[in-house]
Amino acid sequence: MKQVKFVLVVLCSILLVTSSALAFTLTEDFSGASKYQSDLTTSTGLNQWNDLERWQINSAGGNPGAWAQHTPRTDLGPENSLLFYGFDATGLSAGSAFSLDFDFINGGGSFNGTVYLGGLTGSEKISRFAPWADLSTTNFASGTIGNNTNTWTSFTTLSGLVDADYDVLYLAFNMGGTDGLRGVDNINLQVGAPVPEPATVLLLGSGLIGLAWYGRKRKNA
Asked: Are residues 10 and 30 in the same domain?
């Protein structure tokens, strides 16, 4: 009986931990999406796409439909601009796993784009105005978006661990140039360990109970 009680305690602990596991998922194909002109702080500009005015949500031409397109004023030259999204990171502690995939197109010119993942605390912010100095001090992962890519291309997965506790986590894309098409689509960002499916927890619990029953049977033999 003690073994069965022990197994039940272990199973309840597993259920408590898995039910409280926190994760964030951003899946964006830009169908019906909107973009705002806002800075990102720990309390403003959250859960929305922000930019100065150089990025647009284009309803056609993506992979395959809508997409976020970088369209600077041609009279200003090869101007780069930032598209960014932030979300509340409360409960997503240091060591949380992250994984990012997306599609991009970056045709023409010689401007390599960059994707950033980072975090904000206190008074830190990401501004919609260049030169985005906070990017260099707040990002914990980044990757290069290659130029002269004239067709939609899958970005090599960016993955790792969140390096600290943050109030807000953000995803940002910096692209520039005047020639060709530039933009991103089909974003899939996962932060935090996914909660196990109920069937997985049930299977684990059944296995623990079975082991306890087997151990008790051997003891009584």
From this structure: no
Q: Is 10 found in the same domain as 80?
A: no
Domain that holds residue 211: 1-21+197-221
Between CA 128 and CA 44 the distance in angstroms is 12
Q: Where are any strands of DSSP class E within the chain?
A: 24-28, 35-36, 49-50, 55-58, 67-70, 80-88, 97-106, 113-120, 139-145, 149-154, 158-161, 168-176, 182-191
For residues 9 and 67, state if they share a domain: no
- Rounded to whole angstroms, the Cα distance separating 91 from 180 reads 41
**Pairwise CA distance, residues 23 & 191, whole Å:** 6
Q: Does one domain contain both 108 and 172?
A: yes
> Residue 77 has which token pair?
């030259």
Ranges 6-10, 36-40, 135-139: which has the least confidence = 6-10
Contact 78, 160 (CB under 8 A): no
Q: Which residues, in sequence order, are bridge partners of residue 40? A: 126
User: Who's near 5: CB < 8 A, 6+ residues apart?
Assistant: none
Q: How many domains does the chain contain in total?
A: 2
Are 107 and 149 in contact by the 8 Å Cβ rule? The answer is yes
Residues 41 and 123 occupy one common structural domain: yes
Question: Using alpha carbons only, how large is the chain's radius of gyration in Å?
Answer: 23
Q: pLDDT digits over 116-143, tens only?
A: 999 999 999 999 999 999 999 999 999 9
Measured CA to CA, the distance from residue 154 to residue 186 in angstroms comes to 9
Check whether residue 189 and residue 204 sit in a common domain: no
Same domain for 47 and 12: no
